[in-house]
Structures are given as structure tokens and as C-alpha cells.
Amino acid sequence: MSGTAIAPEVPTLVLAADERAPGAARRFVSGVFRELGIRDDFTGRLVVCELVTNALRHGASPIVVRVFRDERDGLVVIDVWDAGTGRPVVRPENHAATSGRGLPLVSALTRAWGVRELNGGAKAVWAKCDC
């Protein structure tokens, strides 16, 4: 098998952009963390909820959630794709605002996060968790 690599399957959940998406994503992450042997899934559930909620509010259907361990550093990656062309923006802190705290929360709870461009103007927002 010289020159051939086998890629393991990545647990993936495809969601419709509706109010049930964040809850379904939390349950999915909880199950994947359990399979990975991670006992405390609080951070993962919170991060995926924030990323899916952003995709729901600012993106376009479908929303795709993937969870996997990065082989390079062993950290768990939560990857949320959507078909929307908008990009995440971290807004300045505003104590009177009723929204806009999700990305600062994700930033505070994870080792790193970012955005990858996908085909057709879509995007993937990812976060690496210290789990």
C-alpha cells in the first residue's frame, strides 16, 4: 500500500437551520466526547452551542458539525460549517448588549479558534478544546 493513507471517519452531524439545532449539537458533542473517553463535556457542549447558534443566526442551512481529535497535538476540534457568506466578528465589549458574547466566550474557553473558507463562499468555524 505504498503511497496510500487511510483516513479515519470523522463523527459528523448535519442539522437543519432551526431552533432544535443547538440542542442536537450539544447531544452530539456529548456522545462523541464519551466515545473519545472525555468525561467532562461542559466546555465542548458550550462551544458547539455558541458556534451552531451563530451559524443559525448568521449563516445558511445546512449546518454541519464535526468533532475529532487533532493527531498533531491531541486536542479535540469542534468544527461547524454553514453555507452562509458572513464571517464571525468579535465585537467590542458592550455591557448593555443582549447578544454578541458568544465568540469572546469561545475564545476564553478554547486553546484556539478560527475560520476556514469553504467552496462557494461557505465557511467552517473551528475551536480546539483542552479536553
What is this structure, in a nutshell?
With 131 residues, the protein is of the alpha+beta class.
Description:
The chain has 131 residues and is of the alpha+beta class. The protein has one domain: Histidine kinase-like ATPase, C-terminal domain (Heat Shock Protein 90), CATH 3.30.565. 31% of the residues lie in helices and 24% in strands. The chain has three helices and five strands. Strand 2 and strand 3 form a beta hairpin. It holds the Pfam family HATPase_c_2. InterPro entries: Anti-sigma-factor_SerPK, HATPase_C_sf, HATPase_dom. GO terms for molecular function: ATP binding. This is ATP-binding protein.
Secondary structure elements and their pairing?
Elements: E1 12-15, H1 21-35, H2 42-58, E2 63-69, E3 76-82, H3 102-109, E4 112-117, E5 123-129
Antiparallel strand pairs: 1-2, 2-3, 3-5, 4-5
Distance between the termini: 34 Å
CATH topology: Heat Shock Protein 90
Number of E-state strands: 5
Order of helices and strands: EHHEEHEE
The number of distinct structural domains comes to: 1
User: Helix count, per DSSP?
Assistant: 3
Overall helicity: 25-40%
Order of strands across the main sheet: 1-2-3-5-4
Backbone CA Rg:
15 Å
Which segments are poorly predicted (pLDDT under 50) over 5 or more consecutive residues? none
Q: What's the pLDDT, averaged over the residues?
A: 88
CATH architecture heading = 2-Layer Sandwich
**CATH hierarchy, class:** Alpha Beta
Largest sheet: 5 strands, antiparallel
Shape annotation:
globular
Descriptive keywords:
five-stranded antiparallel sheet, 31% helix, 131 residues, Heat Shock Protein 90, alpha+beta
